[in-house]
Amino acid sequence: MRLELIRKAEDLIRGYRANGDDAAKTALTSWLIEKKQIADLHELCADKPDLQHLVVTPRFAEQFGLGAQVLDLIRKHRDFFSSDEIFLATGAYYSAAARSMFLLEADRYQEALSALPESPNDDCAQYALQRVRFSYGLHILGTGIGRPQRYLRGAVDLFEKAPRFEDDLIKKALNLHGETALMGCVDILTKIAARRPSKAIRQALSLVMTRRAIMLFNSDKLTLAVFARTMRNALDIDPENELALGSLHDTEPDLEIGEMTGLIDKHKMHQACRIARETHHHKVRDQFFQYMRQMLESLREMGPDANVRRRALSDISQWCSEVDEAHPLTLEIREMMERM
Length: 340
Known about the structure:
Blueprint: H1 2-18, H2 22-44, H3 58-63, H4 67-76, H5 84-92, H6 98-105, H7 109-114, H8 123-140, H9 148-152, H10 156-161, H11 164-173, H12 179-195, H13 199-218, H14 224-237, H15 242-265, H16 269-278, H17 282-300, H18 306-323, H19 328-339
Helix pairs in contact: 1-2, 4-5, 5-8, 6-8, 11-13, 12-13, 13-14, 14-15, 15-16, 15-17, 16-18, 17-18, 18-19
């Protein structure tokens, strides 16, 4: 009968929560937490009759001054828990940070942050502090509210204890939009990667860098050269970043053409020829020979001095031959020179 009444009460509270009742949501969250904690303590103390008085809920422990004893019990039986995170989370509900943990589970992030103790004096309370700060930072990331960097840069210590939170950050990062949000995310992931260069973090950082650069480039806020450099930096972090690879491949011809054009304008022809000769892009080589044809047309418009024309034609022929001796323009110029 008792269990049936409890079940009906839970169903009733769930119904209120489903209708958007915040108080019901908080009440149900608190009840489920306490239900789990007391179940774990009951199992822990099942063969310890002298410790049965410590099988209490977190709020009961707080009200009757048993928190320190329960926390000591949990700490002495650390091996009972299947992971460090479960041990720390269980202890946190009996620590000085218990209220923050309850508020956090009810998604009341700001209140959870405000309720944190100033100086956590044990590892469980320290875990609670790290988790609350991380959760608050993740909550405001991308919203334009506050400074998420302040709360997320130090998340590495939490990730070491509970790797699943790293996945939460990555998931949020990859779903962000907007220049400011992506820039903040790049900053956060860069700081984290410096201390914890896991493959997942590096992949996320590389991809966020790429997406932000594409957004800025498409808005004419990045030059082609800076965009390409950013793509290379992203590939240094994650060589398998297909978005960066594709973007860099798409921009390389224009970058090479820009560099080659600048060299031609400065009359550094051998360097320009080297770019056209070594390029992997037909577009670059085609542009080079288009420039050479333009020079050839200009030469035809020169005055009657045959020696000057012959020397100029010889130069163009040499430049074309450096790039591709079998190119139609190279052969055409050779024929012109033979007829002169």
